Fold:
Amino acid sequence: MQAAGFRAKPGQAYDTKRIDAMRAIETGLEIRPWHKAFDYKNRRTGELILTQSDDQFRDSLRVAVPRKRDLSHIDLGTSIIFGGAPLSDSQLRAACLVDADLAGANLERATIKQGDMRSANLEQAVLVGAQLSGVILCGANLVNAKMAGAMLNGADLTGSNLYGADLKGADLRDCKLNGAILEGANLDGAIRSDTSWKRGTEIKNRHTGAVILTTQSDNLADDLSQSREQRSESRRS
Structure:
């Protein structure tokens, strides 16, 4: 049963965590997000996916992942009341987090190697120093994500949105970035394969396939900066 005033419109995701949080506050219960016994639900359907079994949320996930628990569509997004998921230093190797809502989550130094995070919402998530080698992040929302020093070698970021993301010093070797949105991203000191971003590389619109930018040098950050300056001058004129 849905809480009064929280009925989702057709095609709209349930804000299940907010509903349960409001219920907890209204009834005086102490079961709240990131605490033992809290229920985490499918953000599309409202169905139960995981009940927190430990006092530390990351420990509950650490137990669930090796058991091949499918965490697709799980709602772990930030809330005004309780903040983002506390998952720093968590062990989530090969976790299935397809379409998961991890907006604002603290995944600093987390290990998610070989995980499946297709279409996941990681907007403003903290992934500083995270181990993301081989992770599938196709179509993921990484807008304004903090990813300095993250290990993304071999990761698939095809069609992902990295607008404004901080990738300073990140390891992007053998990383697939076809169709990824990189405008406004900080790529200072990012490590990339010798063959990546060479002059003449075409960066395309992830929806239409149209070429947005053809690199003019071997430094992608410089080319993106120059492209932004040219668009700004064009608007002024």
Summary: Strands lie at 39-41, 48-51, 202-204, 211-214. Residues 220-236 form the longest helix (17 residues).
